[in-house]
Design brief:
Blueprint: E1 14-15, H1 17-27, E2 34-37, E3 45-46, E4 50-51, E5 61-62, E6 66-69, H2 71-74, E7 83-91, E8 105-109, E9 121-124, E10 153-156, E11 166-167, E12 178-180, H3 188-196, E13 201-205, E14 209-215, E15 219-220, E16 231-232, H4 235-246, E17 249-256, H5 260-270, E18 276-280, H6 290-295, E19 307-313, E20 315-316, E21 320-326, E22 331-336, H7 340-359, E23 368-373, E24 379-380, E25 386-394, E26 397-400, H8 409-414, E27 417-421, E28 427-428, E29 433-438
Parallel strand pairs: 1-19, 7-8, 14-17, 14-18, 15-16, 18-22, 20-25, 23-26
Antiparallel strand pairs: 2-13, 3-13, 4-12, 5-11, 6-8, 6-9, 7-10, 19-21, 21-22, 23-29, 24-28, 25-26, 25-27, 27-29
Length: about 450
């Protein structure tokens, strides 16, 4: 793990959102490159520019099933006066040692097959009698059923211009051109291109491994029976899904009870498979906030390997946050608040950029736009805090959904954007232009 050391500040320092994010992005470093097989590289980020070693397609080939012909031989052809040509053989995809098409001749050709020497165009089989002498046909007969189709004569009922239905060599991409640029995320089309130019492996930054764990003795796993005072653990599911959406390989750890020793041992166990650790819950000022208890002293002289600092941020929701590194490899750890909305907003603002940085991407933040606030009344916001309200963004307008409460999961499920209210703004009137973070 390659990471710098996070900054520290006094316990009374109120961090801004930008300061906290800057500290994270300065500390977290991209993962080291690795050579992977193409399918293993899906979702990874390309390290170097890739140039094309050979043109695509590498030869002139047919875009239709039909007949390769000379233009002069079909000039003026019609249904009343078809051109009758001698069929000199078949040209199938992958054919080598091509036959030659001379005057008055045609070669039956399949889609993707190389254009034989002498031929100047391809006429689709639908423009011919298919060699059957019974008028226009809609398809070729299978070679196994009619092997004689590669000989005899064919009637062509329409003329063809030069290069008709021919895919020219290099018409997709020429040798020496850039296939993909460094920083490209490899999806199915990009992997297809790499395979098409003959590359079986590629140098990428691997997808980061993110371990997500929630804390709290009150948490119960879905499908289990709730007891008095218990709730279902939704945070670990939400954040694991969000990490995967960001491009990571994410592992969810079942809820850890409110016991500092158990949490410390769980984190130690998970370090072997983590490039980034994310906890949720236990970072506030309560007597049972065990994340602070378990991690505040990590990095002391008797426990080398970084340390986690717990901070207060000038934001709502998500004021309590923790960040640092743990273990001998200084694995970054982000400790998020436990309220569902707070944890999710914190993920979008801080964890997602960290994941994208580990991947080696340049643009790590969600896109932002300006939109007109469509609301029934003015939005209030605490002075000195940057507020993030859930919203629905449509056609240049954004409408709030749910209230400001950090527990409102149902409203979060409806939102596709965050409405940003700056620190120095206490009220936003309907019709005001606001900043909006698009959540995808």
């Amino acid at each position: 793990m390659s990471s710098a050391e996070p900054r520290t500040a006094g316990p009374d320092h109120l961090w801004s959102v930008d300061e906290h994010l800057e500290d994270i992005l300065t500390t977290v470093r991209p993962l080291e490159p690795i050579e992977l097989q193409l399918l293993d590289a899906q979702g990874c980020v390309l390290v170097d520019d890739v140039t094309v070693p050979l043109s695509l397609p590498p030869f002139d080939n047919s875009s239709m099933d039909g007949y390769a012909v000379r233009v002069a031989d079909v000039s003026g052809a019609s249904e009343e006066f078809p051109a009758a040509l001698e069929v000199v053989g078949d040209v199938a995809a992958g054919a080598a040692g091509l036959l030659r098409v001379g005057p008055g001749q045609a070669a039956r050709i399949m889609t993707g097959a190389p254009l034989p020497p002498g031929a100047e165009a391809v006429v689709p089989v639908e423009w011919t009698d298919g060699g059957l002498g019974e008028g226009p046909v809609s398809t070729m007969r299978a070679r196994s059923l009619a092997p004689e189709g590669d000989g005899g004569h064919v009637r062509v009922y329409r003329p063809a211009e030069a290069r008709a239905h021919v895919r020219a060599k290099g018409s997709d991409v020429e040798a020496g051109e850039y296939a993909l640029r460094a920083g490209t995320v490899l999806g199915p089309p990009q992997i297809a291109l790499l395979a098409a130019i003959g590359l079986g492996t590629v140098l990428v930054r691997p997808r980061p491994r993110v371990v997500v764990m929630s804390t709290g003795s009150e948490l119960v796993q879905p499908d289990e029976q709730l007891g008095d005072g218990q709730i279902y653990d939704s945070n670990s599911f939400a954040l694991t899904a969000a990490a995967r959406d960001a491009g990571a390989i994410a592992y969810r750890v079942g809820a850890v009870p409110d016991d500092a020793d158990t949490l410390r041992s769980t984190i130690e166990d998970q370090l072997v498979r983590a490039d980034l650790l994310v906890t949720t819950g236990g970072v506030s000022v309560g007597a049972y906030d065990v994340v602070k208890e378990a991690l505040s002293h990590v990095g002391d002289e008797d426990e080398p390997g970084g340390g986690v600092e717990f901070r207060k941020l000038a934001m709502q929701p998500g004021k309590p946050q923790g960040f640092g590194t743990v273990g001998a490899d200084h694995v970054p750890l982000l400790a998020l608040p436990g309220n569902p909305v707070s944890s999710y907003v914190s993920f979008e603002l801080f964890v997602r950029p960290a994941i994208r940085t580990l991947m080696g991407l340049r643009d790590v933040r969600r896109p932002t736009v300006r939109a007109t606030l469509a609301a029934d009344r003015a939005l209030s916001s605490p002075k000195g805090r940057r507020q993030f309200l859930r919203g629905v963004h449509t056609d240049g307008e954004v409408r709030p959904v749910g209230g400001a409460g950090s527990h409102l999961v149902a409203a979060l499920a409806l939102a596709d954007a965050l409405i940003v209210v700056p620190e120095d703004t206490e009220s936003v009137e309907p019709g005001t232009e606001v900043e909006v973070v698009l959540l995808g």
